[in-house]
Every structure is written in structure tokens, then in C-alpha cells.
Amino acid sequence: MFFLSQNSRWCFDLLALFFLGVIALVSLPSFLFSAGYLRAQFSRGRSLLATGLTVFFVLSMAAVVASANLIFFLFAWEFMSLVSYFLVVFEHEHEASVKAGMIYLVMTHVGTAFLLAAFLLMHAQAGTWDFEGIRAAAPAFTPALKNILFGLFLVGFGMKAGIVPLHIWLPYAHPQAPAPVSSIMSGAMIKVAIYGLLRFIAGMLGVPPVWWGNVILVAAGISCLVGVIYALMEHDIKKLLAYHSVENIGIILLGIGAGMVFWSWGWGVLAAAAFAAGLYHTVNHAVFKGLLFLCSGSIQVATGTRDIEKLGGLIKRMPQTAASFLVGAMAISALPPLSGFVSEWLIFQVFFVGLRDASSGGKLFFAGMMACLALTSALAAACFVKAFGVAFLAMPRGRAAAEAREASLSMRSAMIFLAALTVALGLGAGLVWKMFCAVAASFLEPPASAWSGLLSGSWDLIRFPGTDACLRTPMIMLALGAGIAAVYLFVRLTARKRVMTAGRTWDCGYYRLDHRTEYTATAFSKPFRIAFSFFLLPYRKTEKIRDSFYHVKEFTYETATTPIFKRYLYDPMVRGLFKLAQYVKGFQMGSIHWYLAYIFVTILILVVIFGRP
Amino acid sequence: MKASLLLLQAGIAVLGAPLVSGFIRKVKNALRMRQGASLGQPYYNIAKYMAKEEVVSEATSWIFRWTPSIVLGSTVAALMFVPVFSFSLSAPGMGDVLTLFFLFSLGRFFLALAGLDTGSAFGGMGSSREMFIASFVEPVAILSVAVVAGHSASPQGGLMACSMGMSFSGMVAAAALFMVVLAETSRIPVDNQETHLELTMIHEAMLLEYSGPSLAMLETAAHTKQLIWFSLLGAILWPWPVGSSAALSDIAAAAAFFVLKIVLCAVIVGLTEVSLAKMRLFRVADFLGLAFLFSVLALVISGLGY
Q1: Which ipTM value was assigned to this complex?
Q2: Model pTM score
Q3: Which position among A191, A472, A554, B224 has the lowest Cβ density within 10 Å, counted as fewest Cβ atoms?
């Protein structure tokens, strides 16, 4: 282990501190939550094991972010992947966990292999494992080498971040872990991959060629849309949230990709602002996605299910969980004045400046990206209307939901803390923005004169460079609050008979409506399933069992969508792999004599090639 | 001074908004050779609802009860971000047109939740369709405003809800925005305000369980939202007077011109409604896809410098 002690160098620059902060913001409430969650779900011994593993998981993420040496980075990275694997298969009695763990393990190691290749290439060129040394040597790398490194990093880190089409493990693995761990995985671990992209591509390789930014933007746009469309089709609350992680990683990368494009065009200030917008969304997503996963854990403890089609009416049984989930849902749908709105507003500004100032092709490209982000945020809002509406509103769809009980104190306080943080990141946007601009400036080094104007202004103001647009979230909150209060008071005072009578929902005069007549999540998402059928390839299976020609005794209906990435990309790959293995099996006949012969032949060949004086 | 003028403007806009709906109805009836209800009918409706008691379903939660206040409140707040009477009376350094769009999203989000909250299949259907259409509306709306803002604003201009002069690209973008307005104000060919048929209704389906003052609030919000969209359309297509001062005479002149623009908008919307049939829900995606093409076309034209 001597090289570990030799290579354990730490680096606590602003970028590392920023991501350490993100990890801490998600992990600490998750630990608080897990106190109540694990007690409700597992025996004492297993709870202890889960807590221990989670501690190691969080520490390994911190080590990844704080390391300043390739070898040490790789060790911490691998440790992080393995510990999180154990957490994914923590409920190993379920078949689904084991399968999810397998997919995760394979994918993450393929990713690590790409990183390893990149690191070895860098070491071979720079002659050192230290970040500082590589950073100093990087300007001398040939463009071809830089391009290869970019590709390796994009795949290696993209695998962990869940960029489409490398996202396939994410909706399997994140939901299988215990809820506080899902929260850390979605809130923090995939952000570590974003850290890797920033550290190695933006922080080491210097000013990028423009196509790097374009590639990131296209991948990000596809991730956004694919993530949110799959999320709309999903009724398992944790899987739905996991697909939203794919979407939000896309939004983060939209900011970062635009930053790279601007950087290569020499728009220093705007590039830094675009990176800062991406960082802003990174924090926001960490907080609200952490929050939403914790809420899903609370639902799971209360009802024993993750299928929203079996829930309903939880807002009355679990008011605090519902309110926290609502805050998270509003933030992820970019509704003002919460955090998600601010970061998406910033990324829209980035694209607007691109659209306004780029030359012809660039204009169209940025317009496309802008439309992509707008579509994504509207679809996300639809998805969370579905998730919140079906799970929390109206009548319960089963006994589990009807008898749900509010979460324990530790779980509630964790959720409320993160919900408050979501609000604070929205209302305190001016302060937070200036902080993140400083982080972005620390590795981009924009021209100071133009930059300082950006950081000025009062605490509540966001000023975006290159436009005269500004945003004051506290003022928006004030306008909103004043509007709602004025309207409420006006009606309260003027309505002659503000009598509220409790009645039944209108049943068209037939019979008392019950949970079977409620609108389901499947029905809610049907228009989207049809509109995106070219991509989702939905199919249905109906089965009729007849007594006679006139009377159908039983009717079953099943609808699902085709997972095209699995079917047309990964399944053929796996089949190819197995086929290859079949050929290799020819050499492996199980006889020790043959194996000895192989060894002998190998040695002979080696001696012939290398053994000559 | 400016703050009080802003509040006054918001008050007048909310009070005047139902009149626009009444006028559109009048136009439609005139085109159909009918007498029709009087101009003030939307006001009578609201007054009637205000005087009635309210029946609230047992299945609902606080979301259902608070939604009318949130929807109308956010619409009133949205009035701060669009130039209504005068350009000097908008966006006092608080945000831009995106804030306006996302405030609409806020109202829509809660309205859709309220539709699901009743447990009625009608409400759920309305919510689902509303969110479906909204997701195609949003890209077109944002892109067309961005094209106009990027074309005509000063080099440092932001995403503001007005242009700085008439241009060809602005007109094409306004065509795209007009299609958005039809969708957002529940007009034919996207939705139909005149019917309560479960196969077709979208906006009305979400409101089906509301009664009394709550319904009055939601109707007022719908009227106000319509006025905001018309103002936005007017500010983008035909901005005048640009950059006027906050002097009272200028504001009065601008207000008179504004009324003219709204009347024009209302007549065009009425004509469109009478001469088209409602589309099937899934054709709406194509309709808004066409609007998206228009906004891209506007961008291309603006790139050519027109």
C-alpha cells in the first residue's frame, strides 16, 4: 500500500469545496432520515450494517472530490462504486436488487476502465500522477490526444452521471437501495461524476475545441428529453425519480456544455456564467432530489409500496410528507420562486445570449437547445402533477394507503430541513449566485474587469452578463404572496355567502364514486404515451375469457412501453458478448494437459520474440 | 409613484379583463347572425357565482381549497411582468418574460392538481390534457419571444416581453405566438369554452367541481390570463409608444392605443373561432408543432436581418 500513502495528496480548491458542500448537504439530512427509516424497515443488526456502509460511501465520495492525485482518485472512485454496489444489493432477498446490482456493477466498471485508460494516457504524457503536474503539462498535449482524453472522460464519467444512452443502470440501481441511500446516490454520487467532468475536461485540458461543447450539449439535450419521457411512463415512485435524475443531469450539462462552447468562442465572462448556472442546478438538484427520495422512503415505510397506482389520499394521512414532497415537486418543475426556477431561468438566459449573439448555425443550435429545455421543464411539471396528484390527492386506492401513518420525527425533520433549503436556495438566489460565480471563475479565470460587474449588486439580485435581464426572487415571492393574499381577502370580504358545504364529487347521478373511478397515473400519461409513441413504442395485451358469445367473464388489459435502449443497444451487445464467450469456450476444454500445453506454447513464443540477446 | 401606477394598472386590468371575453362572444355571435348575450355577461356570471354558496367535495384537501387563490394570485402577479398599458409600467427589475411564463406554469400546476384532487375522472382527464398541451406550448412561447427579443433589442437587451419596433421576423414570431394564445386561452381549435362535453373539454374539466366564489376566482383568472396574452402579442407585434415616459399624458395615449390593439386581437380571435372546427386532442400536437416551425422560421428570418 506504499503508493497510496505516497500519493495521498489532497486538494481543497473552490471546486472541490463546492462539491464537498453538495455531498454534505445531501448526506447529513439523509443520515438523520435513516435513523427513523432503518428502524422501521430492518432489524437492528442490518440497520447498523447499512449505516456503516453509508458512512463509508459518503467518505469515499468526499475522498474522490478532495483527492489531488490520479491513483488516489481512482482508488477512492472504485471504493465509492463498490460500497454503493453493496448498498444497492442491501435487500439481497429481492431478485430485483441482485439484478440491479449486477447491471450497476458491470456498467460502473466499464466506466472505470475508460477512466483508467485516460489516466494512464495522461500519466504517460505528463510523467506524474499529480493533478498540478498534469495541469502544467496539459498545454503541451497534442490535439489528437486531447480529443481522445475528452472521449474517454465523457464515457467514463458519463456512465456514472447517467448520460443517455449510458443511463440504463440508473433506474434499476437507485430505486433498489434503501431510500436514504437512493437520496445520496441521486443527490450526490452522480454529481461526483459532474465534478470529474469539470475537473479533468474544463480544469485540465484548457480551452476546448467547439465540438466538445456541442457534443456535450447534444448529449445533454437527449438526456433531458429521454429522462423525462421515461419518467412520465413510470409509476414506481423511486424509478420515476431516478429517471428524473437522468433528466436533471441533462439540464446541468446543458449549462456546462454551453459554457464550453462560449469558452471556445472566447466569451470568457459568459462561459463562466454558464458554468455557474450549471453548478447552481447541481446544488438545486442535489437538494430537491434528495428531498424527493426521502419522501418516497417515507411513503414506502407508511404504505409498504412504491407503486403510485396503489396510493392516493396520503395528503390527509401524512400532511408533512405531502407538503415536503410538494415543495420538491414544485422546485423540480421550475416553478417560481423556488430553487429549480432560478437555475433554469439562468440556463435559459445562457441560451438566449447564445441565440442572440451567435452566428447563423449557432443561432439555430441554441434555439433548439432552448426549446429542448422548455419542453423538458413542461414535461417535468406534467410528471410531477401526476406523481403528486395520484399519490397524495383524492381517495386512497387501497388499504395500505388508507391506513398510512405520518413518518417519525427524525424522518420528518430531515424532509422539512431539505424543503426549507429548497426554498432558501430560491429566495436567496442573489447571494448563492455570486458564490457559484466565484467557483466557476476559479477554474475559468475570466477577465476580471468584466467579471466584477457581475458580482456587484444587492443581495437579492441576479444580474446575468450580456443581457440587461435581472431576477429578484424575493420580489417575485412578494408579488405572489401579495397577489394571493389580496385575492383571498377580497373574496373573503365580498362574497355574500362564503358558505362551504361538504358534498360528494359529482357522480353524474349514477352511484357513489370510489377509488376505482379515479383517474389513474396510466390514464394521466396516456396522451404523452401516444404523442411520443414513435420513441416509446407502446403495446397492449388484452385477454378476454368468454362464457358465451354474448358475455365476457373476464377481461385483462395490460399496457407497457418498449425499452428501446435495452432492446436495441444493450441486448445485442450482451448477446454478442455471449457469442464471443462461446468461441472462447473452444479453448477451454477442462483438461489440465491442454492448459499445460497452452502455457508451454506461450512461453515458447515469448522466448522466441523477446528472449533474443 | 411608479409602484402605485403599477398597482392601479393591475387593478384596471383585472377589472377590465372579463369585458374582453364578453366582446369576443359578441363578435362571434355577430358573425353567426345572432343576438347573443350582452357585453357584460361575464360580469353577471362572476357576480352570480360570488353570491352562491360553495359545495366542496369530501374527497378534496387543502390543495383544492387554496387553488383558486393561488391561480388568481399568480395571474395578478404575472401582470407585473408584461407591458399592459405602457411600456414604462412593466418588469421593474424583478424578472423577465420567463418569469411571466413560469408564473402561468405555477397556476396551471395547482389547477391540474385540483382537478385530480376531486377524485373525479373528469378532473383527471382535464388535468392530463392541460399538462399535455402546456408541454407543447411552452417551447413555442419561449422561443418566439426569444427570437423577437434577440432581433430587436439593444445589444445588451434581455428576454423582455416587448419588441423595439416592427419587423418581419417579429410578425412571423407573432403568428407562432398567436397559435399559442389560442391554446392558452382555451379557444377553438384547441379547446372549446362553450361546451361541457367530456370528449372535448380541457380547461372546463378541471373546474368542473368548483362552485361559488371559487369558480368566480378561477373565471376571473382565466379572463385576466387572456388579457395578458393579448397584451404580450400586442407588445411584440406592434409596439407603440416605445420607451415612453411615466408621465400621465403619455400613459393615457398608450392606454388608448392599447385598447385598440386588444379590440383587434379580440376580433381576430373571434373570427378564428367561428371559422375553424375543434381539433382532436392529438392533432393539437401537430398544430403546435406548426407553431414551433413558425418560430424557427422567425429565427431564420431574423438571422437574415429582417
Answers
A1: 0.95
A2: 0.94
A3: A554
